[in-house]
């Protein structure tokens, strides 16, 4: 039985912001929001005020990433734009025209042993996935294209998750057909395929516990793991949720909890160890919750790591949960 949830520590609202598709933290004291109107809002979490906003384009922003030196935006249609930080503002560096009509979000992998090695994975036309070197504009873009004639018709890519295992980098990618492909990125070779979850929209995986979670248009969350020697996917259990539709799943880095963001506006918190439901957060009452993000360090205002959630109701809720 899910217990009564706490209230958020704060809700960020701004009349000009409108619906929010994507959020990301920058060094725990700043939060960025990408909106349906195609603008980025920068929130200062020491004052809880928006200190800057600017237009990226006319299309909705579907995803954001922030590294130490760059902001990366993804727009509906697939266009990727990279900005550098300059004198309390953002300067556009380069843009990659998109050709993706689906809803797959970009993913960023930063090598923990070399923070200059940053790879951005982005959806391309049909089944293709592009791999962009963020810090090296001269490096060629790698393309991952599933061209095995024995593969079922996959449809467009819908979600993916890069991860490291035994010092090797892999990419798990889900497709419209419900198939999930695993790529060995050192060779660019597809090493596994499995029909895991139909209509998948979001995936997360934790290599330390060797378990992942998939959400999508159904009323179920599906867990999975890898057989480590062969790197073959193994289906786990299914978790039923009350109403169908999940936009985002996120495993917290301490592996204590994971959260799902629902079409019904509910944020569901689960124990990562037992998969037991812990709380259902109901702060967002109009429209779905589109994205979730965790701060990597405690936010000084609340002296605790914070989870942020944002969606179609034009607010960003901040939570101090199970820390």
From TrEMBL:
<dbReference type="Pfam" id="PF00400">
    <property type="entry name" value="WD40"/>
</dbReference>
<dbReference type="InterPro" id="IPR036322">
    <property type="entry name" value="WD40_repeat_dom_sf"/>
</dbReference>
<keyword id="KW-0853">WD repeat</keyword>
<dbReference type="InterPro" id="IPR001680">
    <property type="entry name" value="WD40_rpt"/>
</dbReference>
<protein>
    <submittedName>
        <fullName>Uncharacterized protein</fullName>
    </submittedName>
</protein>
<dbReference type="InterPro" id="IPR015943">
    <property type="entry name" value="WD40/YVTN_repeat-like_dom_sf"/>
</dbReference>
<dbReference type="InterPro" id="IPR019775">
    <property type="entry name" value="WD40_repeat_CS"/>
</dbReference>
<keyword id="KW-0677">Repeat</keyword>
């Amino acid at each position: 039985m899910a217990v009564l949830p706490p209230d958020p520590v704060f809700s960020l609202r701004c009349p000009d912001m409108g619906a929010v598709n994507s959020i990301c933290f920058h060094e725990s004291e700043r939060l960025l929001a990408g909106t349906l109107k195609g603008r980025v809002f920068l929130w200062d979490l020491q004052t809880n005020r928006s200190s800057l906003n600017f237009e990226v384009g006319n299309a909705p922003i579907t995803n954001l990433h922030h590294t130490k030196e760059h902001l990366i935006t993804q727009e509906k249609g697939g266009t990727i734009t990279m900005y550098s930080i300059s004198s309390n503002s953002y300067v556009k560096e380069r843009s990659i025209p998109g050709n993706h009509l689906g809803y797959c979000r970009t993913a960023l992998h930063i090598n923990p042993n070399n923070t200059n090695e940053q790879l951005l994975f982005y959806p391309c036309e049909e089944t293709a996935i592009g791999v962009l070197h963020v810090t090296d504009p001269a490096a060629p873009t790698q393309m991952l294209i599933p061209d095995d004639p024995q593969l079922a018709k996959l449809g467009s890519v819908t979600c993916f998750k890069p991860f490291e295992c035994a010092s090797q980098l892999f990419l798990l990618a889900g497709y419209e057909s419900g198939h999930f492909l695993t790529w060995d990125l050192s060779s660019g070779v597809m090493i596994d395929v499995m029909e895991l979850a139909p209509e998948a929209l979001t995936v997360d995986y934790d290599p330390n516990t060797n378990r992942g979670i998939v959400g999508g248009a159904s009323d179920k969350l599906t867990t999975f793991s890898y057989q480590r020697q062969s790197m073959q996917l193994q289906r786990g259990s299914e978790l039923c949720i009350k109403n169908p539709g999940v936009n985002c799943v996120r495993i917290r880095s301490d592996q204590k909890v994971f959260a799902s963001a629902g079409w019904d506006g509910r944020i569901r918190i689960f124990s990562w160890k037992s998969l037991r439901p812990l709380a259902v957060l109901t702060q967002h009452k109009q429209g779905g919750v589109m994205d979730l993000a965790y701060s990597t360090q405690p936010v000084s205002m609340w002296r605790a790591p914070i989870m942020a959630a944002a969606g179609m109701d034009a607010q960003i809720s901040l939570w101090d949960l199970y820390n």
